[in-house]
Amino acid sequence: MIHFEYPILLWLLLLIPAFVAIYIYLRIRRRRQATAFAEERFFQHLTPDVSNIKTHTKFGILIAALALLIIAAANPQTGSKMVKGERSGIDVAIALDISNSMLAEDVQPNRLERAKKSISDLIGKFNNDRVALIIFAGKAYTQLPLTSDYGAAKLFLDAVSTDMIEYQGTAIGQAIEKCMETFGYGNEDIPWEKNKSRTIIIISDGENHEDDAVEAAQIANGEGIVVNTIGMGTPNAVPIPQYSRGTRLGYKKDRDGNPITTQLNETMLQQIAQAGNGTYVQANNITAGLDDIMDRISKLEKKNYGEQMFAEYESKYQYPLIIAILLIIIDLLIFERRNSIFNYKNIFGKSPDNR
Hints:
The structure is a single chain. The chain is an alpha/beta fold. The protein is 37% helix and 23% strand. A hairpin with a 3-residue loop joins strand 4 (130-136) and strand 5 (140-147). Helix 1 (15-35) packs antiparallel against helix 3 (52-73) and helix 7 runs parallel beside helix 8 (266-275). The longest helix has 22 residues, at 52-73. Mean pLDDT is 84; it is low at 340-348 and 351-355.
């Protein structure tokens, strides 16, 4: 069975029918323009050295070469055998704030959707690591326990919404405790081993109203767990959109009819990261910030997960690549103009004038 190392590149094959359609359109338009000057039966006499067959052949060869280059870039592989090997990595617990304030639109499209996109990008950077997803508002819950199935992690992430927790608030401290629990902390059935292969990433607007998050981060760090924070939003006060069954009703208001606003509490998130010996990232600099966090994570001590069976793949990209190069060379050797020396009609004794 063929496996592609970079299957996302195969989407580029959709360019092939687009190029073919453009080529056909340009040929039809060129023919229509030519008919404005002469009838079709005179085209061959006006351009006696032009070979339509060669033109079409050259285009077909180039298209085939392009398709093979895309396939080669995706790196087709075959699984030759199963091998046993050691698997090591780190444990990452991501705590995502899903309180109503995360619907604010000071980052586009809103804080929650931007956070989910950031988490998805982060998961895409993991390799042999385990990830857990914790969601929290006024309370914290485990959405997904530790797993190395990144596809499943993204599916659970896509399903996250602010409707999943009715009790509003921002209990960052409780979220940190849940993250520690998913690592096995406090579980009497599993001996707790303090090591440096665990990290927590808190993604929130930082409006903590429920508990002492700084103290929770200190406790986590005391157990060897690094606590990082990502701030979603801006320091400016913005209104909170209100929805009912997916329909936007306006903005949330208090009992006096005044708009309820929310703003990023950077100070709180910075204090949590400092107490957890981690890194703080602001959403407006999310790309560079994620790289900083990944750099920090990559330096953590790897935990050995024991022996596991792995499929050892053998790359086969060189075959479509070689064929693509040969096709390009053939295309360069084919000229669009007719060759009078090797014209088949001349070979069979017919005059070029009778072509």
